[in-house]
UniProtKB/TrEMBL annotation:
It comes from Vibrio marisflavi CECT 7928. Belongs to the UPF0162 family. This is Protein SirB1 N-terminal domain-containing protein. Pfam families: TPR_9, Transglut_core2. InterPro entries: SirB1_N, TPR-like_helical_dom_sf.
Length: 269
């Protein structure tokens, strides 16, 4: 189940890479249905847009289809709900976050021949639309709107601080492993908020297959084990973080936690 590291994400489209991730975290994910639904949407889009000959008009019609008739939208009311990061739930509910909606929009749009690429913008995933001979446009998958550079700069300032500026690297095309890594982090955060610790633990274990010695991931794993009453394992993970990151402010807090847990009787599982 946790053999995700063997997946060749660069050889897969983003949607199927995300599906592999979802399945690894939650084995109950209905992968077969997701693949059929993605194909069905592609077929429906091709049929609906067959009369459009101008590519730009066709793209606008595609956005109207996606966000209008199909009713996909960003989840304004429950943005951090884990359902918004599981591809099957997004396809069922027609609600998601930029990375999940963007992967579906990219999947269908690419099959329709639109020049779309992914941008791992610091605040969220964007889609880059590059018509020949024109400046690229940046699409916000949350609502399908074009975002200008003035707005992107404002997002950067809100994210990094008032003295920051929009840099070229902020708008570089990202590879699928980068997007999948960020997706995994978002999914883990959502599951932790919902106290779904068993699934969150799978996220952490998956992340550690890619970066085995990441002290922050190991710290998070320790927190999850603590919630699952596996105190001895949690102590080991916390101590690793303290040893590796002694100057991190969290290290001092964890020292107190370790001392308190060391005095607690060990639960045998």
């Amino acid at each position: 189940m946790l053999n995700l590291i063997d997946e060749d994400f660069d050889a897969m489209d983003l949607a199927h890479g995300a599906l592999a991730l979802n399945k690894a975290v939650n084995p109950e994910t209905n992968s077969k249905w997701v693949r059929k639904e993605l194909k069905r949407l592609c077929d429906e889009a091709e049929l609906a847009l067959v009369a459009e000959t101008d590519q730009k008009q066709k793209f606008n019609a595609f956005l109207n289809l996606f966000y209008g008739e199909w009713d996909f939208s960003g989840d304004q009311e429950a943005y951090y709900d884990s359902n918004n990061a599981f591809l099957d739930k997004v396809l069922e509910n027609r609600k998601g976050i930029p990375v999940s909606l963007g992967s579906i929009l990219l999947f269908i749009g690419s099959r329709l021949g639109f020049p779309l690429e992914t941008i791992a913008f610091p605040t969220q995933l964007l889609l880059k639309l590059s018509w020949p001979g024109e400046e690229p446009q940046y699409i916000n998958p949350f609502d399908g709107e074009v975002v200008d550079k003035h707005t992107l700069k404002a997002w950067i300032i809100g994210h990094r601080g008032p003295l920051e500026s929009l840099k070229e690297e902020d708008l570089e095309v990202a590879d699928n492993p980068t997007i999948i890594g960020r997706w995994l982090a978002l999914l883990k955060t959502a599951l932790l908020r919902e106290e779904r610790y068993t699934l969150a633990l799978r996220c952490t274990d998956l992340a550690l297959t890619f970066v085995p010695d990441d002290p922050y991931e190991i710290r998070d794993r320790g927190f999850i084990y603590q919630q699952l009453d596996c105190h001895q394992v949690a102590l080991t993970d916390y101590q690793y973080f303290i040893d590796q990151c002694p100057d991190d402010p969290a290290a001092e807090l964890l020292k107190s936690q370790v001392n308190a847990m060391s005095e607690t009787p060990v639960t045998v599982h």
